[in-house]
Amino acid sequence: MTKAEIVEQASAAIDIPKRKGEVIVNTVLRCIIDALADGERVDLRGFGSFRVSARNDREGRNPRTGEMIDIPAKRVPLFRAGKEFRRRVNDEEMAKN
Predict the structure, then answer these.
(1) Residue 74: count of CB within 10 angstroms of its CB
(2) Residues 59 and 77 in one domain
(3) What's the pLDDT tens digit per position in 52-96?
């Protein structure tokens, strides 16, 4: 599913124009990204939580040449699905089999 499909479904569900639905979806995503950029954790009950993890700098290997390279430290976003999310995914997966 793409962001455009999410906008379409959300707009149809609450009977608003797609333009307004797009603004809402973009605003929610921007709020999540901004909070993570500020080092905050985002918890959406029933859906999951987002947080940022720090990775230390390290040495790695270029797979093409085998040369050792330095990989700089960075922060990476992480997502953990909530209990309801996992249950729904597993229930629907079981129904398909």
Answers:
(1) 10
(2) yes
(3) 999 999 999 999 999 999 999 999 999 999 999 999 999 866 666
Block residue for tokens 């793409």: 2
Domain with 1, as residue range(s), is 1-40
Residue 12 pLDDT grade (very low, low, confident, very high; cuts 50, 70, 90):
very high
Per the structure, the count of domains in the chain is: 2
- Cα separation of 38 and 52, whole Å? 9
Can you give the pTM of this predicted structure? Answer: 0.78
Residue entry with tokens 């455009």: 4
List the structure tokens of 6.
């999410």
Indicate if 50 and 96 belong to the same structural domain: yes
